[in-house]
Amino acid sequence: MNSIGFNPSLAYINTSSPVASAAPAAAPVATEQATELQGTTETFSMSSVPMSTPEVAMKPVTSSEVQELPKAVALESVPAEVMSFNETPARASGVTSDVAGSALPSTVGAAVSESSDSVVGTTMVNGEPVSNSHIQFYKNAMTHEPEISSMVAGLADQQDMGTEGIQYRLKGWDSFIRKVKTETKTDPNYEVKDLIRYTLTAPADQLSKKVLDTMAQLEKAGYRTTIVKNTWDVPNASYRGINTTVESPDGVKFELQYHTPESYAMKDHTHILYEQQRVLDPEDPQAIALAEQMMREVASLQRPDGVEQIVSKNEYK
I want to staple 294 with a disulfide (CB 3.0 to 4.6 A). Which of 10, 35, 137, 238 is the partner? Predict the structure, then answer.
């Protein structure tokens, strides 16, 4: 468990983060894992939880208030061109003007107008041209990740929830660019919402209440849960979990997954089967067998008590 206290009125800024010094931390490169969820979304309803959106005063904290977290291993593989990128537009969409530099801003929290200019042009990264707006997007996540991570870790401590793989909370640069290139072929406006991601766990008899409480605390701190995908009761689903997208007061989106320890372990196991299946023709007998195996195995998981209270929603249509 974590030992970080949580105060909804604060955004914790880790001033010792490698981003602040623009020096990547030495750590092994993580294997990227992701499970894409499909299906329709439903109307969101959490009548038992107050979901108002109060104004939240964000302020920097002193170094004595900062708690150490494991370094994000993705920083090891960020190209030098990205780390040194320092093109600061007057105002970029969803980005404060001091984010583009490698140093953390002295304060964060001011909302940015949606009707603002974007970064234009390209930069050569690893020998290939990359949109400056994508570099800006990645550096924005690097800059805001420490305060978001400390907030999430504090919530996990408050709710007595496990934090799984928190050292992998920042998606690697190569994985980010690969996903952007793939998705923008069909959707030019595609936005990566899991560049920063976390997983919180709790036993099956406690998970639902802790998820609702965490969502309520996030809301009090000015963090809106905008997308909820709950697949626990989806027939024939090969994945069981609750995946959410959360938007910070600064407009930074991140993924927050909620699992039981068993469903988290099962996710990693079935992902291996999924990677084998997805390259096959859906009608291939081996693909069908793999799909059936995944459904059988996830069906053995204990369903969290009251999980039907966490109803799917999607505010981004």
Answer: 238
Determine how β-strand 197-201 pairs with β-strand 253-259. Answer: parallel
Name the CA dihedral angle for 91, 96, 99, 105, rounded to a multiple of 10 degrees: 140
Instruction: Please list, residue by residue across 217-232, b when 16 or more beta carbons sit within 10 angstroms of its beta carbon and e when fewer do.
Output: bbbbbbbbbbbbbbbb
Residue 246 makes CB contacts below 8 A (sequence gap 6+) with: 218, 223, 224, 225, 226, 253, 254, 255, 256
Give the E-state strand segments of the chain in sequence order.
122-125, 128-131, 162-163, 197-201, 224-230, 242-247, 253-259, 313-314
pTM, two decimal places = 0.70
Residue of 72, 80, 78, 67 whose CA lies nearest to 12:
67
pLDDT value for 317: 53
